[in-house]
Amino acid sequence: MDAPADFIEVYSAALDAVTCDAIVARMRASDALSPGQVGGGVYPELKRSRDLSISDRADWADVAQTLNVAVYAGLLAYLRRYPQALVAPLMLQQPDGQGGLRRLSAGDIAALDDRALGQLARTCLRPGAINLQWYRAGEGGYPYWHCELFPRAADCETLHRHLLWTVYLNDGFSAGETEFLFQQRKVAPRTGDLLLAPTAFTHTHRGNRPEGGDKFIATSWILFQRAEALYPA
Questions:
Q1: Whole-model pTM over 0.85
Q2: Disulfide engineering: 108 pairs with which of 72, 104, 121, 195, CB 3.0-4.6 Å?
Q3: Which stretches does DSSP call E strand in 96-160?
Q4: Dist CA 76 CA 90 (whole Å)
Q5: Residue 192, helix vs strand vs coil
Q6: Which residue numbers delimit the Prolyl 4-hydroxylase alpha subunit Fe(2+) 2OG dioxygenase domain (predicted)?
Q7: d(CA 6, CA 193)
Q8: Do 208 and 145 meet the contact criterion of CB atoms below 8 Å apart?
Q9: By percentage, how much of the chain surpasses pLDDT 90?
């Protein structure tokens, strides 16, 4: 009997090592990094890092595009394994050819080719803001057990988060894993690997302190489209 799914997926070499090295070099040279925030505030006892949000920066647009392309490929693979990520929350329908609508099943999603699945994914989901993070050896980390889904902003943007993702930009250090509490699983950073997992409390996690070398990652979320886009008047 297969082991129960933990909904934590790691896709090896989602980004090539040369590209990862180039991003790390640009991070090291940047004077725009600032102390990492937790829920909009700086709490170094919870998270100690140097961060750079790049989605609204023209000088980092190429990196944001490269990361989003890599994550998009992983997302399609994730939706094929877990089509319920689309059909369970959204009750999707399509024309039945007879003037009516037919409810889509998980099997329908899994059977779509990449083009059709991609179109459906883009209709339902959108990329979040990308944050580059630098954790220094022996001191940096995100030891606070946390999840990614919480009520904060007036526009409820943080409640639209559906999946979290991390691209590990380097390795060559010990520890520094992404550790999931309830799944009792540690994901060791490997250059270019992509991690995808749900955002809710069921996947409470933390970032362990790297030892023997600095750790660099890119992180963000896959969000639902806003209601006005999903359910137009």
A1: yes
A2: 104
A3: 101-103, 125-127, 131-135, 142-146
A4: 17
A5: coil
A6: 133-222
A7: 18
A8: no
A9: 84
